[in-house]
TrEMBL record:
This is GNAT family N-acetyltransferase. It comes from the Bacteria. Residues 1-26 are annotated as: Disordered. Keywords: Transferase. Residues 1-12 have a biased composition (Basic residues). GO terms for molecular function: transferase activity. InterPro entries: Acyl_CoA_acyltransferase.
C-alpha cells in the first residue's frame, strides 16, 4: 500500500462577519382624525367582501390609499353564522390611528347589527384599534385566537 502525500490544507482568507442591514426607524407621524379617513366602496372578491351581507372598502387618508377593509358573512365555530371583519393597512399607514377609524366606519357602513373581528393574540395594535372602535372581547374560554364583537349602538328616539 502506498501513501500519497496529502495536499496542503487550504485556508480561506479571513472575512468580516456580515453586518445586519441598518433598520430604518419610522418617524412618528401624527395621528389622523376621523374626518381625514374615507372608506370608498369597491367591488368585493370571493372571500373579500363579495356575497350576501359582504362589503369591501378602500381606506383613504386625505385621498391617498392606506389599505382596505372588508366584511364577509362566514359560518365558523364557536359563533356560527356571523359577519366577520378583516382590515389591512399599508406599512406606511400603520401606527397613525387609521385602523381604529377603519374598523368603526366599516361597521357603521355595513348592514349588520353585530360584527366580529378574529385577531391573533400577538397582534396587539389591531386589538387596540378594534377596542378603540367599540369592539369588546367575546372570546370563549379555551380559544387561542381573540374574538372581538362590535354591536351597533341603539338610537332610542322615544321620549
Amino acid at each position: 500500500m502506498t501513501h500519497h502525500a496529502s495536499a496542503p490544507k487550504r485556508t480561506r482568507p479571513a472575512r468580516e462577519t456580515p453586518k445586519p442591514r441598518p433598520v430604518k426607524l419610522r418617524t412618528a407621524e401624527a395621528k389622523v382624525s376621523a374626518s381625514e379617513v374615507d372608506l370608498i366602496s369597491i367591488a368585493g372578491t370571493p372571500g373579500k367582501g363579495k356575497g350576501p351581507g359582504g362589503g369591501k372598502w378602500r381606506i383613504e387618508v386625505n385621498g391617498v390609499r392606506a389599505g382596505e377593509v372588508y366584511i364577509n358573512v362566514i359560518d365558523e365555530p364557536p359563533i356560527g353564522r356571523h359577519a366577520s371583519l378583516q382590515i389591512y393597512l399599508n406599512i406606511k399607514s400603520q401606527g397613525r390611528g387609521i385602523g381604529r377609524v377603519g374598523y368603526a366606519k366599516a361597521c357603521q357602513l355595513s348592514v349588520h347589527e353585530t360584527v366580529y373581528a378574529h385577531i391573533r393574540r400577538s397582534n396587539v395594535a389591531s386589538r387596540r384599534a378594534a377596542e378603540a372602535a367599540g369592539f369588546v372581547d367575546a372570546t370563549p374560554s379555551g380559544f387561542i385566537q381573540l374574538i372581538l364583537r362590535w354591536v351597533r349602538p341603539r338610537t332610542d328616539l322615544s321620549i
